[in-house]
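Below sits the subject:
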Amino acid sequence: MAWLQIWAQDTLLPNAAQHSTDALSSPIKCPVGIPKSRQLWVGVASAGFAVGSLVLLNEAWYKQYPRTHFQTFDDSREWLQLDKAGHLWTAYQVARGTSRLWHWAGVPNKKAVLLGSASSLGYMTIIEYLDARSQKWGWSWADVGANTAGTLIFAAQQLTWQEQKLQIKFSAAPRRYTGMLEARADNLFGPSVPERLLKDYNTQTYWLSANLSAITKSTALPSWLNIAFGYGASGLWGGFENKAADAQGNVIFNRPDIRRQRQWYLAPDIDFTRIKTNRRGVKTLLTALNCLKFPAPGLEWTGGKLKGRWIAY
């Protein structure tokens, strides 16, 4: 949470009329009076986090499967591209958080954005390399494209507007299924709530959340009010189809009757970083929450039908 406190200190300006409420918004080229040791601290901490998280990821995930030579894998049609939306969101958030850290360390705005963006791309590319050396997966150019897009969405806005008028957000509502589907979900996604949040694409939605006052320049609108466009899916019980076989090739799951379909949403949202507060702890909490979509009523478009939802997630 320490880096979130650092990030939150400068991101909340009193109102939308000020030039920016987001990280790296200060017009000062380089903050004055900041010790050089901060840059060393940020560099060491960033490297330590990257190495530590990759080691844990390798132990928890890749170690279970045989290694192989570098190979490619076309998964561009897998999971109706929900996994690509996940790459987009992760790259965006890593670039944003890391850039804020470098700015806090005294690095000028433009350089901080470039360092944070390079860190995001580098980190995500290493994960892709681990995929490429795993027999179960491979290097995915679709993943690389999503990683690049997420980083560019952050960097382009920060360098052009010095704020994030458009943000990538995430929401999920883990669920339990019945009968054969619950057994399949345990095998495919995992039995625990954290595993279901990360792996069950049927419960995930990714959002493009736009701040209305920043885009329209209107002072009549609340500075924190956003409108969000969401993408999700349902009926996903396999990467490419709802069918699975065991190691011997015996079919253990086959549900072609379950329709795999995309879901689109429109709902109001909140930019928590634009809520006024002088309490550091509250600022930290709001900054952390801003990567998530605020639950709210909305509209859903699925299978050619439009319907209202009390809570769109």
Q: What stands out?
A: Residues 37-60 form the longest helix (24 residues).
